[in-house]
Amino acid sequence: MVVSKEWDTLLDLILDGVIITDHEGTILKVNKAYQQIFNIRPEAYVGKNIRELVEDGTIPESSTLKVLQTKQRVTLFHENSEKDLVYTGTPMFDDRNEIIAVVNCVRDMREINELKRTVTQTKQVNKEYREQLDYFRGRETKIDGLIAESSEMRHVLSLASKVAPIDSAVMLRGESGVGKEVIAKFIHTRSKRASEAFIKVNCGAIPENLMESEFFGYEAGAFTGASKGGKPGYFELADQGTLFLDEIGDMPLELQVKLLRVLEEREFRRIGGVKTLHSDVRIIAATNQPLEDLVEQKKFRKDLYYRLQVYPIMIPPLRERRADIPPLIEHYLKKIHERHGTVSHISPEAVDTLTKYKWPGNIREAVNLLERLTIICPNGEIFPEHLPREFTDCLPSYKPVDFNEKVKWMEYHELQRALKQEGSTRKAAESLQMSKTTFIRKLKKYQVLFEADHK
C-alpha cells in the first residue's frame, strides 16, 4: 500500500495521532499529531516494523499487532505520569478479505478531560456572571426606585422572589415610606399575573361611606348620584391581576367582613345588583400599623388577619439599610433630572452625612429633600452646608472634607457611572480612555476608601 502526498496532507489535518502499517506491520505513515503526542521524528518510525518498536520499548504495546492477529478492530488503553492514551486499531481489507493495512488512531484522553474540565469551569463562571449581570440589571429593575445594595434589602427581594410565582396572599409590613408599593409591584411583575392589571387601593384615603362601592362597584340607580351606566369596582378591575391593599389597617370592620367573604368565595355582587360576579385576584396587603394590637382591640378581624398574613415580609426602614442610601440618592437625582431638567452633583461629604441620618420619613423623606436641594443649590452642586440643620446636628462632629477628597469622590463617581453605563470594566475603561488595569485598581481603591464609611 502506497500513501500518496494527498493522503499525507489529509492525515496531517487530523487532530488524533495516526500511524499506518502494511499487512506485515511495517510503518508507512506517521501524521503530525502522532509525532507531537510522542515527541518523535517520522524517520524514527517510518520503514520500521511495529514489532521492533514494541520489543525495544519505544512503544509500550500495539493495537496494530492485535489487529493483525484477530483481523478485528482493537482498542487499548495506556496510562503513564504524563498521558492517558487510547489506541484504536482498524484493519483495511482487500477483495479477498485479506488485511492490506492497519490504521491506528491514538488520542490523549488526559488532554481532552482537562479541556472538558476547563469548558465546565468556563460554563460555571459564565453562569455566575450571567446571574450577577441579571441581578445588577434587575437591581433597579423595571420598577422605579427598587434599590437593593444592602444585605437587608437583598433578603427582602429573596423572600419576594420566592412567593411571586405562587398565588398566596402577602402581607408587607414596615414604616411609612419604606417602599411597600415598590415591593408589591416587584412581586406582581414576577408572578403569572404580570401581564394583567396591578390595582393599588389606599384603604386610608377612601371615605368610609364610599368604600363598599369602590371595592365592589354599583349598578345604575343603586343610590342617589350613582352613574347612569353603573361602575365596576376594584375587584372587577383587578380580575386575573393583583389587588394591592395599602394601609389595610384603616379598613372599617364592616368592609373587612365583606372582603373576607370575597377572598374565600371568590364572588360578589355590585351594590344594587342581583348578578353574582366572579373575581380571581391575587391580594397583596400592606400596613405600617401593629395589626396584632388592632386585632386585640377588636379593630381588625382575626380571621381576616390570618387570611392576609399567609406570607409576611418585613421591609426595614432606611436607617437599617444604610448601604442603599448612596445608590438611592444617585437614582433619585437622575429621576429628578429627567423630570425637571436640573443637573445636580452631590459631594461625598454630603452623601456621608445623608447616610448617617436617621430618616424618620424613610425614602419618601429622602426624595422630597433631594428635590428641594436641586432647587436651592447653586450650580447644581450639593454640599453639607446646603442640608437642613437636623442633618448635620445628628453627627458627633462634622468636618468638611478637603478639596482632594472631593476630587477623589468625583473620580469614583465617574468610574461607577461608566461601569453602570458600559456594563463591563473593559468598555468602561475605554470610555474613560484608561487601561482596564488602572480602572480596576482605582475602583477598588475608592471602594475601600468611601464605601467603608457608609457601613
TrEMBL record:
SMART domains: AAA, PAS. The keyword Cytoplasm does not apply. Keywords: Aromatic hydrocarbons catabolism, ATP-binding, Nucleotide-binding. PANTHER family: C4-DICARBOXYLATE TRANSPORT TRANSCRIPTIONAL REGULATORY PROTEIN DCTD (PTHR32071:SF57), TRANSCRIPTIONAL REGULATORY PROTEIN (PTHR32071). Residues 3-54 form the PAS domain. This is HTH-type transcriptional regulatory protein TyrR. It comes from Brevibacillus choshinensis. CDD domains: AAA, PAS. Residues 146-375 form the Sigma-54 factor interaction domain.
